[in-house]
Write a structure and sequence with these properties.
The protein is mainly α and 186 residues long. It folds into 2 domains: 102 residues, Rna Polymerase Sigma Factor, Chain: A (Orthogonal Bundle); 78 residues, Arc Repressor Mutant, subunit A, CATH 1.10.10. Helix content is 76%, strand content 0%. The protein has 7 helices and no strands. Helix 6 crosses helix 7. The longest helix has 38 residues. It is elongated, with a radius of gyration of 24 Å. About 9% of the residues have low confidence.
């Protein structure tokens, strides 16, 4: 689709929006939750408005879908970086608080061991608490998305997540005490 000479930039983008919004949204919805899909789809058309050479482009739905795909990839990469930074910051804070030096290097065995302990701790939670934690904390889904996925209210999801995290905290504290003092004999 090409912009006609008599058409303003805004009118051209509006025409594209009306023609292709549904198809671009359908593509993004296959890859992301509804709220993210709506944001990304709208951002596609906002970026078109800001494109310096919009008049020169011959636009098709495949071009718009490619823009949406790139935006989703950037969003995912940014989210992954933020999660890694958060995990590093939290780990450093825990090390400082407990006075443990950082391990010089980590081997895959260490990771498997930690994952095993985490899986054991998660298995001590109710299935509802475990599902809420996995969706919100591990997968980074919104409370709304998690609530829809599990068929409950956002308040319920929030309660399950907080209860589960509280239980995990107690479990890991007990494990830390047990490691420092040795096994408790009954």
């Amino acid at each position: 689709m090409k912009q006609s000479n008599s058409e303003t930039r805004e009118d051209f983008v509006m025409r594209l929006f009306e023609a292709y919004y549904t198809r671009v949204f359908a593509f993004t919805r296959k890859c992301a939750p509804q709220d993210v899909s709506e944001d990304v789809t709208q951002e596609v058309f906002v970026r078109l408005l800001q494109h310096p050479r919009l008049e020169e482009l011959d636009l098709s739905v495949s071009y718009l879908i490619k823009v949406a795909h790139n935006l989703l990839r950037r969003r995912h990469a940014r989210s992954t970086r933020h999660r890694e930074i958060l995990e590093t910051t939290v780990t450093d804070e825990i090390i400082q608080r407990h006075g443990r030096p950082a391990a010089p290097s980590r081997t895959p065995v260490d990771d498997k061991s930690e994952n095993f302990h985490l899986d054991e701790a998660l298995n001590q939670l109710s299935s509802d608490e475990r599902d809420a934690i996995r969706l919100i904390v591990q997968d980074g889904k919104s409370y709304t998305h998690a609530a829809e996925a599990l068929g409950v209210t956002v308040t319920t999801i929030n309660n399950w997540k907080h209860r589960g995290l509280s239980k995990l905290k107690k479990i890991t504290q007990l494990e830390a005490i047990s490691e420092r003092t040795g096994p408790v004999l009954g």
